[in-house]
Recover the amino acids of this structure.
């Protein structure tokens, strides 16, 4: 039961920050889905299949745009790039996250 | 499951979606396998990481349904989005009563504003019909009709808000986020 709670808190936390993580990765340079998903799967345990529903939603929300790059081997690769709106959103979310993280750390620190 | 079986299941799960959207999604997942293979992973490994194709299809449908509703609000896209969200299995004990209350309130609003509109229209029409110069009646009638039109706009706004909330709530049910729960 306690494990269940811990696991569900983790899942909810991840869901909340996933979009911000994608924004962060793309703010460092354009990327393609496989690369983004592999990184998020490795570091925060995201299921890789989720990457496309997530990227489609972010595209629908105007946070990212796509372009194709021909590749020597295989089909053209679809790259994602942050839009101006995406950049603004990342800056805002990041500021909020930093403030939140500091506040939580402070509360946790008080209790130990 | 083989790569082609995975893709076939995904395609089957996306049936009914506009062909261009579906092809777009299929191309995405095909590319994912190609990238995985280029990175030295086996198809079985990539499949396991992607999760259950039927479940994936449901989440993609929910995203597509919400998008079509946001872009073009009409009864058809409303039903598409609502149906896709329900298909996600996101109506649970918490949401069901809320959705129920929402539907009742909306129904009552639509009923009330229709009555107001109808009464207004009848008053205005009868004033004209009687041929009497009854400015008060005409004014009252058109006032009521305008109220009804305003009410309809309000209902549309509420529908938009409701679908948006339902959408964000449903997204919390994306199970594939957890790779152990694919």
């Amino acid at each position: 039961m306690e494990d269940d709670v811990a696991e569900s808190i983790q899942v909810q936390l991840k869901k909340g920050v996933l979009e911000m993580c994608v924004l962060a990765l793309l703010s460092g340079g354009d990327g393609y889905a496989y690369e983004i998903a592999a990184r998020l799967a490795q570091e925060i345990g995201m299921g890789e299949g989720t990457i496309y529903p997530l990227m489609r939603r972010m595209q629908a929300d105007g946070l990212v745009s796509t372009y194709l790059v021909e590749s020597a081997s295989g089909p053209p690769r679809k790259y994602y790039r942050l839009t101006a709106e995406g950049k603004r959103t990342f800056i805002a979310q990041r500021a909020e996250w930093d403030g939140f993280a500091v506040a939580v750390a402070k509360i946790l620190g008080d209790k130990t | 499951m083989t790569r082609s079986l995975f893709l076939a299941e995904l395609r089957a799960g996306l049936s009914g979606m506009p062909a261009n959207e579906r092809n777009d999604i299929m191309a995405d997942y095909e590319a994912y396998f190609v990238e995985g293979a280029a990175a030295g992973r086996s198809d079985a490994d990539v499949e396991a990481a992607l999760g259950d194709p039927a479940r994936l299809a449901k989440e993609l449908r929910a995203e597509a349904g919400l998008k079509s509703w946001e872009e073009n609000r009409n009864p058809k896209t409303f039903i598409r989005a609502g149906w896709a969200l329900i298909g996600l299995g996101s109506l649970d004990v918490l949401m069901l009563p809320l959705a129920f209350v929402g539907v009742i309130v909306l129904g009552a609003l639509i009923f009330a504003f229709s009555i107001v509109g109808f009464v207004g229209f009848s008053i205005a029409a009868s004033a004209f019909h009687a041929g009497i110069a009854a400015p008060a009646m005409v004014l009252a009638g058109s006032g009521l009709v305008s109220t009804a039109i305003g009410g309809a706009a309000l209902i549309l706004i509420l529908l938009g808000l409701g679908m948006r909330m339902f959408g964000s709530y449903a997204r919390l049910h994306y199970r594939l986020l957890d790779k152990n729960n694919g």
Q: What stands out?
A: The first helix of chain A runs from residue 2 to 27. The interface with chain B takes residues 7, 11-12, 14-15, 18, 32-35, 37-38, 41, 45-50, 52-53, 56-57, 60, 73-75, 77-78 of chain A (CB under 8 Å). Chain A has a mean pLDDT of 87.
